[in-house]
Each structure stands twice: as structure tokens, then as C-alpha cells.
Design a protein that fits this description.
Largest sheet: 8 strands, antiparallel
Low-confidence stretches: none
Strand content: 15-25%
CATH superfamily of the largest domain: Naphthalene 1,2-dioxygenase Alpha Subunit, Chain A, domain 1
Shape: globular
CATH class of the largest domain: Alpha Beta
CATH topology of the largest domain: Naphthalene 1,2-dioxygenase Alpha Subunit, Chain A, domain 1
Distance between the termini: 28 Å
Helix content: 10-25%
CATH architecture of the largest domain: Alpha-Beta Complex
Bound molecules: FE2/S2 (inorganic) cluster, fe (ii) ion
């Protein structure tokens, strides 16, 4: 019978001995709520705005999980991420994109500069001990790596350390421009836990079984997985005349699959990058933002990065199947294939550390 009692979230450091983390993480309401606060509120998150179109762009950070109303303002060095909540009674400030010069609250007229400083507060002429320092809008960290922006509610890992593997991936396109490609970008919502989607991404073990076409473009015997403190990199090596990554001379690498803890995947191909951002929405449900940036349009559609829609659907099918299976009363919890599943094990170790904190 499956797990009983309070979850322990322990994970053995030895992949050859470890069992999978308590499966209730994927379907139990309380476990999910703990994961949102202990993992997501403390993590770096991709800002889900791929291209700037306005000076003021509101968004919700992890809608359905953190549900934090934020707004991206300003341009260039003056770009900021601010709380989008009025410090008077908590009304939302920007409700749609605009190019206004300030954030104005439509409830009682409070006004803020695009850097979050409160500049007007009608009705408070007689207020004592006012304004308090926190009358200004809370400003969150904002970092940019290549075309990707990151923020977080209360991130604990130093950003440079967390993002170092991503900088390595983007070296492939040094001196080139990664252009966002809206036509091939998509959003999916599926009935599967965010962590199951990540676990599937983190092992190449399933490639020969689930992705027969992709497998023909890779030499699976030379597929390799590299663990970094907060990331896992998998390198696909070609099986013939595929287009190689120039940043990896002599290695025959055709695909660089990077995952950054907890929920971001950045795949480097000769033509550019595809990003999968896996957002928890609720218990056993997640949103997949699939985004592409192209550096070398002439190479799009070639090699292992060619048929990505097919691969995505093949992955989603198995993840949906696992979501149904892990809650079975007769699923005993799994073990890891020691050489082939170091990625999912590393992921579970990182989650275990956060959940036990
Ligand atoms: S809630 Fe914004 S001014 Fe009152
Ligand atoms: Fe896959």
C-alpha cells in the first residue's frame, strides 16, 4: 500500500540506494502548498514576458501557485519589477499594459513613479507618522541573462551562482541576436504535477522508448548528464551529420538540455534556444510555457532541434500517465537507475533540502 502518516521528505544521497521522494508531493493538497512556499517562494523565476512592448506590463508570478501580482516598468537600466499592489487598501495598480508615465491607483488616486516611489496620496494630509517607508512599492530583484529576465519573491541562492550554467549555454550565441519567435511559442496546461514534468525532462533514459525519431538523431551511448549545484545539463551527441554546437568544439554535441532548479529548462540547439517554464497551478496541474528564440534562422528545422512539437507531445503523454499512476494504492515508490537517472535524483535531493528546511 502507498505512503501513510506525515511525509518525511528524506532523500538518500546515494543514487544507487535512494528511493523516490514521497509521491504525495504530486497529488496531496497540503504537500503541494508546502512545496509552493518552501520551493517556489524562495526560488528564481523566469519573468513570463518574452518581449517588451510597453513601459508598464503587469503580470502574475506563478498564477495558481504564488499568485503574486507584479509589474515590469521602465526600460534599459531603469527597468524594474515592482509589487503591483497599492500600498493604501491593496487594489491592483496596473491592470493592463500601457505607456503611462506613472502608476495610478484607480481606487483613491494614489500615484507612484515607475521606480515605485509614492508621489501622491490624496486624503493623507493629516495622517500622523506618514508616509511610512513601505508606502513605496516593494521592488523585487531583477536580473537579465541574454534575452531572459529573472525575479523572485525571496530567492535564497545567489543569482550569479544559480545562473552560471545558463551563461554557459548562451555562449553558443555570443555576438548573435536571439530573436523571440512568437509563432512557434505555446502555452499548455496539463493535469500533471510540475515536478513530474521536470523529472521526465531530467533523464534521457526514456528517449529510445518514448522519442523514436529523436533517438535516431542521437548517439544514445554517448548521451551524458552533468550535475551542477543547482542545475542538470544533458548533452545529446550526434549520430551522423547533424548540426553541431560551435561552442563545444570536438564534442559532437547537437543539443544542450539545461534544467535550472526548480522549474526552468533551456535547450540549446544550433539554431537557438527553446525554453520550457513549468509553472505549478494547483495540485496535480501545471502550465508549460514553451518559448523559442532564434539566432540562426537558416538552421531552424534541421537536426535534433527540428521536430520539437512531436517531442513535447510525446513527453506530455508519459507525464500524464505517471500522474495517474503515482497515486495508486499499489505503487510502492520507485528506485533510480544509478547511471541513467542521476538527474531526477539530483532534483529530488534539492527539493528534499528545501522541503525539510
Ligand atoms: S487602494 Fe489605492 S489609493 Fe486606495
Ligand atoms: Fe522526453
Amino acid at each position: 500500500m502507498n505512503r501513510q502518516g506525515e511525509p518525511s521528505w528524506k532523500s538518500d544521497p546515494d543514487v544507487a540506494r535512494a528511493g523516490t521522494l514521497d509521491e504525495r508531493l504530486h497529488y496531496d493538497r497540503r504537500a503541494h502548498a508546502v512545496a509552493v512556499e518552501k520551493i517556489f517562494a524562495r526560488s528564481w523565476q523566469l519573468v513570463p514576458i518574452a518581449e517588451r512592448s510597453h513601459g508598464i506590463e503587469p503580470f502574475t508570478l506563478l498564477e495558481g501557485a504564488l499568485d503574486e501580482p507584479l509589474v515590469l516598468t521602465g526600460q534599459g537600466a531603469d527597468e524594474r519589477i515592482l509589487s503591483n499592489v497599492c500600498t493604501h487598501r491593496g487594489a491592483l495598480l496596473a491592470e493592463s499594459c500601457s505607456d503611462e508615465a506613472a502608476l495610478r491607483c484607480r481606487y483613491h488616486g494614489r500615484r507612484f513613479d515607475l521606480d515605485g516611489t509614492m508621489t501622491k496620496c490624496p486624503g493623507f494630509e493629516d495622517a500622523k507618522d506618514f508616509p511610512r517607508p513601505n508606502e513605496n512599492l516593494h521592488r523585487l530583484s531583477l536580473h537579465q541573462v541574454g534575452p531572459l529576465r529573472f525575479t523572485g519573491v525571496d530567492p535564497v541562492i545567489p543569482f550569479d551562482e544559480w545562473s552560471a550554467p545558463l551563461r554557459r549555454t548562451l555562449q553558443e550565441y555570443d555576438g548573435e541576436t536571439l530573436e523571440f519567435d512568437p509563432t512557434s511559442s505555446r502555452v499548455f496546461e496539463i493535469d500533471a504535477a510540475w515536478a513530474l514534468y521536470c523529472e521526465n525532462f531530467l533523464e534521457g533514459f526514456h528517449i529510445p522508448f518514448v522519442h523514436p525519431d529523436l533517438n535516431r538523431g542521437l548517439d544514445f551511448s554517448r548521451y551524458r548528464t552533468e550535475l551542477e549545484p543547482f542545475a542538470v545539463r544533458q548533452l545529446g551527441v550526434d549520430s551522423g551529420d547533424e548540426v553541431r554546437l560551435v561552442s563545444r568544439p570536438g564534442e559532437d554535441v547537437v543539443a544542450d538540455y539545461l534544467w535550472l532548479y526548480p522549474n526552468l529548462m533551456v535547450n540549446g540547439y544550433a539554431w537557438g534556444i527553446s525554453v520550457n517554464l513549468i509553472e505549478p497551478m494547483g495540485v496535480g496541474r501545471c502550465r508549460i510555457r514553451y518559448l523559442r528564440w532564434v539566432a540562426r534562422p537558416d538552421l531552424v528545422g534541421q537536426g535534433v532541434g527540428g521536430a520539437l512539437d512531436t517531442v513535447e507531445m510525446e513527453d506530455q503523454e508519459v507525464v500524464l500517465s505517471v500522474q495517474k499512476g503515482v497515486r495508486s494504492r499499489f505503487y510502492p515508490g520507485g528506485r533510480f537507475a544509478p547511471k541513467l537517472e542521476t538527474g531526477p535524483h539530483h532534483f529530488q535531493r534539492l527539493m528534499s533540502a528545501d522541503l525539510m528546511r
